[in-house]
Automatic annotation (TrEMBL):
It is an enzyme of class 6 (ligase). Its EC number is 6.3.4.15. Belongs to the biotin--protein ligase family. It catalyses: biotin + L-lysyl-[protein] + ATP = N(6)-biotinyl-L-lysyl-[protein] + AMP + diphosphate + H(+). The gene is birA. GO terms for cellular component: cytoplasm. It comes from Catenisphaera adipataccumulans. Keywords: ATP-binding, Biotin, DNA-binding, Ligase, Nucleotide-binding, Repressor, Transcription, Transcription regulation. This is Bifunctional ligase/repressor BirA.
Length: 319
């Protein structure tokens, strides 16, 4: 019941809603409303109470909450929110045998967030959106990158919708604004070897939303969306937009509906790059992204290669 009250207050955030109006809508007593509001305050929500005016969910409330996220969310998803976890990907892997398709775990903070290639992903409380999706796609192993691409475009769409900013995608798993990384994606999965197809895939997404003072070691390469905008967007609504946008691409993944926009928003295509692999680094040019979301490159001798992994850096032009 408290989440139904939260939904009502959130729909009129910044305005007072009378206790009687809430009670009438939900068919409960005003005393029950008061008790549930008290519980919401204990959960961390800032709610003002004023005699003869009622209750107001203040504009600076930004606590992740499953009920708010699921209000208007496609029913494919099942959302759970926790205050803190080591890593949302780790938590889903620990429980993979019991999870339904479309399960989403979001956390207000991660104490051991992870990125690709063993890198840490800084995930402080209340500043970003850190979540993982548990999916059971009907895809062969060699098309798994398409899920990462769909995830990237979902974040791009949500940023454009909420902030009016055009981000860029850096193959394979980063979303940038300007030169700063504002989102990283880590996909991990289990494979049915005899069928050469995915048993499940866990899509971990970390998005830096609200501005804060980043650690010095990542300050030059990472940023927050709101470093580039005066708007402040509720993280619950932003996450809902990401999830709904992802599903739009995911449900048509066999038709590659993500691909034209993925190419359009790429910051690599046509650029001179360095390809960093475990045992070597070499120069190339990014020339295409194929229908499996692989990066197609051309080396200095004109040879074309198709990459399914690897770290890519754009080469700076000589001054």
């Amino acid at each position: 019941m408290k989440y139904e009250i939260l939904r009502i207050l959130n729909e009129r955030k910044g305005e007072y809603v009378s206790g009687q109006a809430i009670a009438d809508e939900l068919g409960i007593s005003r005393v029950s409303v008061s008790k549930q509001v008290k519980r919401l305050k204990e959960d961390g929500f800032e709610i003002l109470s004023q005699t003869r005016r009622g209750y107001q969910l203040t504009m600076n409330n930004d606590v992740l909450n499953a009920a708010i996220i699921e209000d208007g969310l496609d029913p494919f998803y099942h959302v759970q929110v926790v205050n803190s976890v080591d890593s949302t990907n780790n938590e889903l892997k620990r429980n993979a045998n019991d999870l339904p398709d479309g399960f989403v775990l979001a956390a207000n903070e991660q104490t051991a967030g992870r990125g690709r290639n063993g890198h840490d992903f800084h995930s402080p409380s209340q500043n970003g959106i850190y979540f993982s999706m548990f999916l059971k796609p009907d895809l062969p192993i060699n098309q798994a990158l398409k899920v990462t691409a769909c995830s990237s475009m979902a974040v791009v769409d949500a940023i454009e919708k909420n902030y009016g900013i055009k981000p860029r995608v850096k193959w394979v798993n980063d979303v940038l604004i300007g030169q700063k990384k504002v989102c990283g994606i880590l996909c991990e999965g289990s494979v049915e070897m005899n069928l050469a197809k995915l048993e499940y895939i866990i899509v971990g997404i970390g998005i830096n939303v609200h501005s804060y003072s980043m650690p010095e070691e990542i300050r030059s390469i990472a940023g927050c969306i709101e470093d580039f905008s005066d708007r402040r967007v509720d993280r619950n609504l932003f996450l809902r937009d990401v999830l709904n946008a992802f599903l739009k691409y995911y449900r048509t993944i066999d038709k590659n509906t993500f691909l034209p926009r993925y190419k359009e928003y790429s910051c690599l295509l046509g650029k001179e790059i360095n390809v960093i692999e475990p045992h070597c680094t070499y120069a190339a040019k990014a020339v295409d992204i194929n229908d499996r979301a692989n990066l197609v490159i051309e080396t200095s001798d004109g040879t074309r290669k198709v990459l399914s992994s690897g770290e890519i850096h754009i080469r700076e032009k000589a001054q």
